[in-house]
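User: Show me sequence and structure for the first protein, then do the same for the second.

Assistant: Starting with the first protein.
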Amino acid sequence: MTEGVNTARSDLWGGAGWVGFGLLIVVESLRMDRFKAMGAELYTMPGFVPGMIGGVLMLLGAILMLRGWRRGSVPHTEVEPAGLLLNRRVIATLLLTLVYATGLIGRLPFWLATALFVAAFVGYFAPPEKTPARRLMAAVLAGALTALIVTLVFQYVFLVRLP
């Protein structure tokens, strides 16, 4: 089997998973209370941001599926879902996210927890051909900027107090 078929198959399965996950998020965000009796508007409803994120996940998943479909036909008999899901990058992503959600949030200020999470994520997934100093610089910069922007947007646009 060629590398292109493996990539196409991965893109089709991965894209389908993201479309399904995005659809689940959209459906659940539509089921959330809209607080119309309290005068809530579209942008202040609790399901607005999750619904937008779900829609973006669906769109990007569909693009990924289209990319896989354009790369070639996919043999249906050779699908290995466990091999596609359980690889080093997925496991690292799950572990970093778990540490962020259960170990950092609530124990550190939100901005610091977010900066550390993003810096660790970028540092781990930075291209290996870059020098360690450049990877570290990119990770620290991405972490600091992400933490700053997310904190400001949530506090001053969405009016949400962060932990």
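Switching to the second protein now.
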Amino acid sequence: MKRIVSAVLAVLILTTLLVSCGGGAHTEEEIRAVLDELLPKSFELNEIYFGEGLHMSSDREKVEEFYSIFDSDVEAINYHPVDVSCGYTTETDIREATLEVFTADYAEYLFGRAFSGISATFNEGEEQEYTSTAVYAMYIEQDGILTVRINLADEAIPLGRTYNLDAMELTENKENFVVAKIPTEMDGRALDVQLRLVLTPDGWRLDSPTY
């Protein structure tokens, strides 16, 4: 009798350990619903960060207000006010929308690219060390006016990837994160993409690009 009780206890303990390890913590249906919500939002953000960017304003009054700030030739100014109808009027608007979709870690990369630009240090540690800006900021908020770099469309990458969520498969399934393998298509080319999603205090967030 004691052996039977011990065996039952061992099974219960093993089951508890397996559950606590987070194996199979989330269903495909749950993650599919999450991606149904996050993917469309990520596509809009892809346009902001990797596509042609936010549309430039054609509001003459707003444009003249912006250019009047500078005491220089208009042709020397490389930024133009954003069209307010796009729904983003400040840098904060873009940041908040990004953090509703992506993790803070991935968002930091996007923020640096968009608002600070990308620089590289040469001859590091030497007397002739210098820093050169390789890519200028995509957006600058100047005196309360959100502006977009006018040549942003020249750097746009191809977008428009489609995801077949019905064929999604979870390759990693833990309590606080999952990795989903999803068949996709872009420009007629099929490719399996792996997306990492992290469960944060504010809900699920993407931790990888979707373009």
